[in-house]
Amino acid sequence: MKHPFLSFVLCAVCVTPARAGWNYVQTVAAGAAGLNKIELSTAVIDRSLPDLADLRLRTPGGADVPYFTVRNLPPDFVLQTDIREEGKMTVVLADFGKPRDVMGVLLEIPAEEFIKTVNVMGSDTGADWRPVALKKYIFRQGGRAKLQVRFAPVRYRFLRLELDNETSPPVGITQVSAVLRAGAYDRLKKIEIPFSAAQRGKDTVLTLDLPARNLYIAELELTAQDGLYSRQARLVSVRNSFAAAGCVGSGQEPGCGKSFPVRRQFADETAPELIISNGDNPPLAVRSVTAYCLPVYAVFDSPAPAAYKLYFGNRTARAPDYGL
Hints:
The chain is mainly β.
């Protein structure tokens, strides 16, 4: 039996006057009766509103087809956590549900200025805690941020994070994500990113040329000509006023590999800057930059195999309410 979850059929993106206000249309196919799931192409994502509010799926006769969109989140991408205050510590408890290979955590903290140390512990039972990474700094200071803790890969079901509040007040944690072992992001869309490089003082600055606007980048991976290196890097969105920071390296230093988590959507933007701090080292000669992006899917019900029209590219459209 043919699976009803299918990708887009091949079709050129074209300008159409068929619908006032919508600039583009693409033909998509439901491969079978029932629930269908189609991946939105980079062309659709690029020409749509960042939140995809302007997407309309219609029959050849023009009738609206209710749908909803989903992103393909990998396992353990965002952790379910229990966050509590214990004495002079903020404690975050995470349960993967079963043992997982993990090599870091990324914290979402909206506070503008702070410095904290973090201990990371692991356990197979949720009671017998073993140290994974101790007294690691996270901070946001003067426009720079380090919100991830990387460590050599470990395999545990439970993680415990302890943020020290001894010398500063607690900070609110809104989300915790896992940095998975290499190869855990196979279900993400892998995109090689062209770039131009320049030196800015002691920093190597790569201006990226993203293939589309509105991409949600989960991880960014670098390869360099240097045989042995480690650098602090920041991916800066000028338009959206945020920065994702991490350590990139040749892998010899624990917790500093070829990739670092970004976990951001680049709304209406195609040229963010990747700033690599060289310190007193020579400039890093970067050979390639790869983005691992979250695919986006439209899910809808079809009474039979059929072709539909997907309209997009309307800057004034509001999201439809189908009650799904």
